[in-house]
Amino acid sequence: MERPTLATMLDIAVHQHGVVSQEQLQAEGFSRDRIAGLVTAGVLIRVIDGAYRIASHRDNELARCASVGLARPALVVSGPTAARLHGFRRVPGDGFVHVTAKPHAQPARAAWIRTYRTAMIADNDVVMRDHLIRLTSPARTVLDMVRYASESAVLSMVEQGLDREWFTEDEIRGTAEYAATPGRPFAGRFLALLDDRLGGGPAGSDWESIVGDHLRGHGITGIVRQFPLTVRGYGNLRFDLAVPARRWALEIDVHPSHYSREGAARDKLRDRCCAEIGWLVQRVGEPDLRHRLHPTLDSIERTLANREPLRPTG
Question: Could you give all domains of the chain from N- to C-terminal order, each with its CATH number?
Fold first, then answer.
C-alpha cells in the first residue's frame, strides 16, 4: 500500500477547522505508530482522545468543537458555546466548550469541556454546522442559556432570535414546554420570561431590549415595541418603543444610517409629521446609552410622567 502523505492529512483538515480524527487518519493508511510519531514531531497536537489539530492551525473554539464532533459524535455542543456559534449577543466568553450528553453517552475529557447530561433533548433540538459540529438549535440554545446568563441577557437573546427569524415564539415556547419537568426548573423560568415580554414586535437591538425592560421595571405601563403608525406626509412607520396612550415614542438610534446626512434629514421629517398629530418622539443615541445610561433613562421617565394620557372618547 502506498505510504499516505501529509498532504492527504492537510486536505482533510482544511475542511474541518484544522482538525482530523484518528479514525480518518487510519482510513487513509496512517498507522497508530505513525500518528504517534507525528505527535512527537509536533506536526499533530492531540486535542482530545481520537482527534488531533494540525499544529499550524490556531487553537480556537471552532477547532475544539470540531474535535468533539469528530471524536464524540453523540455529544451536542450547547449552552454558551452554541450561543456563540449561532451569533447570539451578550454571551459570556468563558473559555469552555459546553456539551450536552445523554446520561450514558461516552464523555469527552478535557479541562476545557463542560458536560451537561440530560435525556430531554429531542431530534429537532439538534442542528449541524459545517456537516461536522452537532449543536443545539437556536430555540434550544436560548432556553439553555437561562442556566448561564441573567434574565435580561436571555430576554435580549430571545428578542434577537425573533427579530432575525431564527425561531418563532411558538417554537421556543414549545421547546421549553417539552423540557419543563420538575427536575428542570430553568425551563419554567424561561416560560415565565416569555409570558413577561413586552407587547408588540421583537426588539431590533440589545439597547431596545434593555431600555424597554428598564422603563417597565420603573413602573411605566403601556409600553409597546415596534408600534406601527401611519402618518400623513411620511407614510408607514414603526416606533422602537411607544406608549400609545400618551402619544409618546422613543427611537433608539444605534444604526449608523441615523448619523448620515440623508438619515438625519429623514428622521427630522418623520418627527415633524408625528408632532403634527400630537406625538412626541424622543431620540437617544449609543453614546448616551453607553456612557450616560441612568441620567438618560431618568430624563425619559420625567418626560413620560409629564405627558397627559389621551382622554377616552364617547
Answer: 6-58 (1.10.10), 72-195 (no CATH), 200-305 (3.40.960.10)
Indicate the range of 2-6, 87-91, 176-180, 250-254 predicted with least confidence.
2-6
pTM of the model: 0.88
Mean of pLDDT over the chain: 91
φ, ψ for residue 45 (rounded to 5)? -125, 125
Q: Quick: pLDDT tens for 231-283.
A: 999 999 999 999 999 999 999 988 766 667 888 899 999 999 999 999 999 99
